[in-house]
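fwd from M.: "can u put these together and see what the complex looks like"

so here's what she sent:
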Amino acid sequence: MSKQSRTLQTYQALKFDVLSARYLPGRKLIIENICEEQCVSPGAVREALARLTSDGLVIAEPQKGFTVAPVSIADLQDLTEVRIDVEQKCIRRAIRDGDIEWEGQILSTLHQLNKTLETTVLEGGKLVFCPIWAEKHAQFHDALVSACSNLWWLNLRSRLFMQAERYRWMTLPYVEEKRFVVKEHEALVAATLDRDADLASALVEDHLQKTADLLLSSDAPFDDTDERYTKAVKLT
Amino acid sequence: MSKQSRTLQTYQALKFDVLSARYLPGRKLIIENICEEQCVSPGAVREALARLTSDGLVIAEPQKGFTVAPVSIADLQDLTEVRIDVEQKCIRRAIRDGDIEWEGQILSTLHQLNKTLETTVLEGGKLVFCPIWAEKHAQFHDALVSACSNLWWLNLRSRLFMQAERYRWMTLPYVEEKRFVVKEHEALVAATLDRDADLASALVEDHLQKTADLLLSSDAPFDDTDERYTKAVKLT
DNA sequence: TCCATAGAAACTATAGAATGTTTTAGAAAA
DNA sequence: TTTTCTAAAACATTCTATAGTTTCTATGGA
């Protein structure tokens, strides 16, 4: 039997499916289908979907079921603007408050991230979707700001990162990686460990803006004229 | 039969109970009790609690049930700092982008808020908990920033406002209202309609910081030595 | 202090009722 | 004769309720 409850299990599975773009925006989430796919009861699925609703990943319409939350270019632009600001707030406070252990964590996660990139992702020059790399990438960025003593900034950052990850994964197969993400990460780490808040802040902005621009200029089926993406982002 | 589903009904009822401090932080939420109180089935309650979990209002521990999310002085301080920043971002963009209709909405909601205050709340000099005033107050602050074209800023603001409302209502019976909130609101509106972003921004900071300070210096049973409030705020 | 047992509550599954959606048949108009 | 609009019926899915199982907690005794 599983250690954690079936609800958490399906919640994480569904969250992964939405973030990894296995379930595209606007897709209808039939409870019965999910039941047999995850081998759980409708109750657990409903509960997982309810949590995802408050996470902003799915939309619940009473008596009409659940659908994957829509995305749009405008939403990505707004999201990027907010992310830059919040990430800067976090990194500044982390640089101010961070200790030795924090520095160690940064180097540790960076190392793991780079090693993961070398061994698994680079296939034929194009980026390939890789859950392990995605996890390492998230852990690295988490470590960078983990010394921020204000938990609410970190909370907001976490939510925004999740949403951005969704965009990244969705359009990842269509973009050619021309940047050297590794270099950007290392520069960011260098500035951070030097406690150069202004430089780190600028690098963060560069990093996030470049990522968004790359997605927007890609060949990805990411067009507001596409019927699947037209719906406006609904916020509670 | 009710128009909207029972789940939404219980979700809103529970949300109200938590925000209005009927359910104190740390309190255990027995599903069965809620069932008979709200006259609904356990399934609906579970679903509502799941949504509240992602809202950060309740904590879910597998196999151990649900409890009302804890609060603390440190959390209120962090929250206030973040709120000030986010509210400023919103008001600045609203001032930049707002149109005539937006201005009208501000005046309309301000008027309703003041009228509500006169007729209902002032009883014996002390502030009395009043759901209607709380709703009008929220609508007024919503209207102020509603012209902000970046939906993500508004989304974050909405979440932070909700959390702050919880603190305000919880400690409200214990604070004597020495400020003239009406004056502060009117000054804020004046600065906003004059499109004076810097002044409005400063007033916002003043407004929020004063509210937090008032709560922290109140006689409210709001002490980290109290066992009910000691638990750290858990962030997903 | 440790262990066992009894009780309570959460978790899961199954079944039935209410609601929304689609399809199809029929009739009227072009 | 063909097309289109309407309406009703059949289907699918969500929503709600009830029952059974597993897990946790508390109390009593060794």
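replying to her w this: Chain B touches chain A at residues 4-5, 7-8, 43, 46-48, 50-56, 62-63, 75, 78-79, 81-82, 85, 89, 150-156, 158, 160, 233, 235-236 (CB under 8 Å).
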